[in-house]
Design a protein that fits this description.
Blueprint lengths: L1 H18 L16 H5 L10 H5 L1 E4 L23 E2 L15 E7 L8 E3 L2 E8 L4 E8 L5 E8 L14 E2 L3 E5 L4 E6 L5 E6 H5 L13 E3 L2 E4 L8 E5 L5 E5 L13 E5 L2 E8 L2 E6 L8 E5 L12 E2 L4 E6 L4 E10 L2 E10 L12 E3 L2 E5 L11 E5 L4 E4 L11 E4 L3 E5 L4 E8 L2 E9 L13 E3 L2 E5 L3 E6 L4
Length: about 475
């Protein structure tokens, strides 16, 4: 009897421990004296830097006229961060034999950094091999002529490329994150310096294996970033001044992934969701709770995470990664003032997922290019409904490597493969069909992994070293 009683007590204690939700730590608010996280950090403290070293070197070029455009691609995955180009001009239904017209092209340093576009200006964070540092470059969309650039030293050796992020831009500011976790903000019009910080020095961030892949988020007048360091998971920085407004603690010591912060709406409340190395977290995005950690889960925690969460309706979000991670659908809900996250379903890597790119949600369906570890369906275009039923795969005649894909209009997709072949496809719940294909790199393309941007019929894309602007407008 004593043994049975002891076992029952031990079992109850174990059950209580497993089912108890740990208390959420309070958000930290930066003081006038500086960041609380920085003050409490056990990592290297940020060293004072001179104004010149912070601002770097600025260069402007001959004045170029900027033609106004009606649409914008101001950040990672476009205006709504959903990778769907809507409200575009009428596009070509098919292409000439030699492909769409190339408006301009240029060489870049090896990498996968992709552009943001706003008010007729193109912003791209490149790398300067001769000076060993990051360089934010601003071009005219219409002509490709360079308007200005701002450089700062940050020596980085190539590891399957160097730069691989997308700036965030609004009417006033451009925010970038470099390969070594240097965050910079400048004026969107003339490149005037605003502020700069290094997340490694300030927050103890560990630079990811293939350098920073996280793309910044501008939410109103605030830059929202995920240092995932020793003392902060997410932070909010005033874009105008560089002052840190809030810092979300990192109680589980998760690390920075290659994923970017997305916005999820749950019962009318916005949340920032971030997939770190270690798990996924939801952080309040509005009101007095902004910056507070609401929930976290370690159910989906692969060692490499490149795709970002895909926000859906009703508080759901979809998550996938490569290297046999598979995928999962989550539900965020609120009960008795407590936030909860549950798993609706999960799938193996051979079923549905993506390795580098983030799947697209459109019309109640998820579209992706399957990862390298998807067996016989590897690198095929595929579609799944929101209940986890795979509706179709595109077949072995059309494989797309690890390249990016972009939804256009009601049922069109642009897909770029590793070697620079661009495909125009139509796709819905019944299947997909190839409409046109063009070799943009004359058989010399390599590692075309950077996301594409489409603005007023101009498609911006790249491979590891070449940057192109195509004209997809119908005459």
């Amino acid at each position: 009897m004593v043994t049975v009683a002891t076992a029952l007590v031990a079992g109850w204690a174990l059950w209580s421990w497993l089912t108890t939700v740990p208390p959420m730590p309070s958000v930290r608010v930066a003081t006038a004296e500086g960041s609380l996280a920085e003050a409490r950090s056990t990592s290297r403290a940020a060293k004072p830097s001179s104004g010149a070293s912070l601002e770097g070197v600025f260069r402007s070029f001959d004045s170029v006229s900027i033609n106004p455009v009606s649409s914008s691609w101001p950040c990672f995955r476009g205006p709504q961060r959903e990778n769907i180009a809507s409200n575009q001009v009428r596009l070509l239904d098919t292409w000439p034999t030699n492909g769409p017209a190339v408006l301009w092209r240029m060489n870049l340093a090896e990498g996968h950094a992709a552009p943001a576009v706003h008010k007729g200006r193109v912003y791209l964070l490149d790398y300067d091999d001769k000076r060993d540092g990051d360089v934010l470059r601003c071009f005219a969309l219409e002509s490709g002529r360079e308007l200005w650039q701002r450089f700062y030293s940050a020596k980085t050796k190539s590891n399957h490329g160097i730069s691989r992020t997308i700036p965030a831009v609004n009417d006033d500011d451009v925010v970038t994150i470099g390969p070594q976790c240097n965050v910079m903000c400048v004026s969107a019009t003339n490149g005037a310096f605003r502020w700069k910080m290094n997340l490694v020095e300030r927050y103890g961030t560990k630079v990811p294996l293939w350098y920073t892949g996280q793309c910044p988020l501008l939410d109103g007048g605030e830059a929202v970033l995920a240092p995932a360091g020793t003392n902060a998971l997410l932070i909010g920085v005033d874009a105008a001044t560089g002052r840190v407004n809030w810092e979300t603690p990192n109680p589980d010591h998760w690390e920075m992934s290659h994923s970017s912060i997305m916005v999820l709406n749950v019962n009318g409340m916005r949340q920032f969701i971030y997939a770190a190395i270690g798990g996924i977290a939801g952080v309040a995005a509005d009101g007095s709770e902004r910056g507070h950690l609401l929930w976290r889960t370690s159910f989906f925690a692969p060692t490499v995470v490149a795709p970002s969460p895909v926000p859906l309706s009703d508080g759901r979000f979809f998550m996938t990664a490569g290297y046999k991670a598979g995928c999962a659908m989550f539900q965020v809900s609120r009960s008795n003032e407590a936030w909860n996250v549950s798993v609706l379903f999960s799938k193996t890597n051979g079923t549905f997922g993506c390795e580098q790119q983030t799947p697209i949600h459109r019309d109640g369906l998820l579209f992706t290019v399957l990862p390298n570890d998807a067996g016989g369906h590897r690198q095929e275009f595929a579609c799944m409904d929101l209940d986890g039923h795979v509706l179709w795969t595109g077949g072995p005649d059309n494989r797309f490597g690890l390249g990016p894909y972009l939804a256009v209009g009601n049922d069109r997709f642009l897909i770029l493969d590793d070697t620079g072949h661009l495909s125009l496809m139509t796709a819905d719940q019944k299947g997909c069909k190839l409409l046109a294909r063009a070799d943009l790199m004359a058989g010399q393309g390599r590692d075309a992994w950077g996301p594409m941007a489409l603005v007023d019929g101009r498609l911006l894309l790249r491979d590891s070293k070449h940057f192109l602007c195509l004209d997809l407008r119908a005459q």
